[in-house]
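# step 3/5: fold
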Amino acid sequence: MATLTYVKGLPTPVEELNSLGLTEFEMFLGAYSSVFHKAACETANYLLSGQSFNKSNWNTYLQTTYGILKRHANGVISHAKGVVDASKEHRKLHIKTLEGKLKSINSWINKSEKKIVDSVKLYAKKNWQNSKTGCRFPLSCSIQFRDTNWKNLRFQIHNKKRRAYNLTKQIEHLKISPIQTVIPRNQAFVVGSKDESFGNQVCQWDGEYLKFRVPACLESKFGKYVQTRLGNFDRNINRLPKDGSKTWHFYRKNGKWNTAVQFTPAPVKRVSRHSAYGCIGIDMNPGSIGWAYIDRDGNLKAHGQIPLQMGLPYGKQDAQIVDACLQLATLANTLACPIVCEKLDFSTKKEQLSERGRKYARMLSGWAYSRFYKLLESILSNRGIYLMKVNPAYTSVIGLMKYARQYGLASDEAAAIAIARRGMQLAENIPGSITAYLSVKDGKHVWSLWNQLNNLIKKSSIKRHHFYAISNWEPLVKQWSQQSAQSKRKY
């Protein structure tokens, strides 16, 4: 089960303050964080060295070298290992992202060079004016800039090749260069255990007071134990259990010590029923979130949109997303049903931002998709509402083809119907009026039909608002399929 983390600033009761304006617990954290940092740095360096690592032997080494207890050493090892593993994973992700960008650039270069070559071949013909195919990239000139579009494209290709060369060298360097990691100062980490009282042997919290076992190297200065009044972690929905493991993390930020406790949350009463009784599908777009409620028979019962404003600062954007998530949680709680969303990954699209234009890059970069679903999952989990994630394949096409005109819905609401029905494991057959014009082998999945139709729509000049006016798709699909067949016969 996933863990949760609650964070609060370390209180400074007046009765605990000394002449320096600090509590004894803060003085201890300042002294112990220095020891913890040295031990964690040495552990991280040993892990990065590539030598065989024996946790038990290294734990003993830390105890004798830094004068700490076994539980303190466990916290040092866990923290250093987590930082090192994160650095290695980040290196892999960095290389994968750069390789994706390099692939996108090379693809753009090949297409652009072919575009110029084909155009040159066309203009080399004597009767190029009477060509039936036309020119893929017609030659034009700008009087303002005194330049041709061919020359401008060649200049772009030159810059892209320089960028591709730099990316290639960067990838080669990252694959062989040693991994480096950073361990911040002014922090302490203590691993918990479910077998110990209060979930931790070194750091114990009874709901009001926090008691910390002082390591041997600092006993002469602070005694065997230090404690402070911590109070409770106030939450509207508090899932911090009395029993179970509790891992504590103390860190200093903006001149203030903070306390974080990580734990396995207590279960909450499930509010949402099984998906067979109905679902709420949601489809997130840059400007709005469309939702649709489907009953047990797969029919639309309610729908709506939650507007989203783009380009807000981080704090206001977070507040807007939380408000939208709370609206969806209230809706799911009222209807007692789960919420179904798409499982999307924008890493590939973000690798192609430099080739897709500024407008698209600005839109995708400002779209807080991952942040929205992270907050939505947390809010729904606290309220006992199940969040289902389904394959996003062809949901927009299905919604526009089958439900947009039928119910008079916006594109995101129509897609939300398809998403909710997919969460209920209902099939989405293609309209019978156009299946005769799509050639699919027997035994193929119905998505093969949707894939063909999606490709035909992309090749055509039809716009999104046309989906609301077309009552019979047969003539259009017949025309597209005939054109596609003719083009195949030519080549």
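# step 4/5: annotate
The two ends are 56 Å apart (CA to CA).
# step 5/5: archive (pending)
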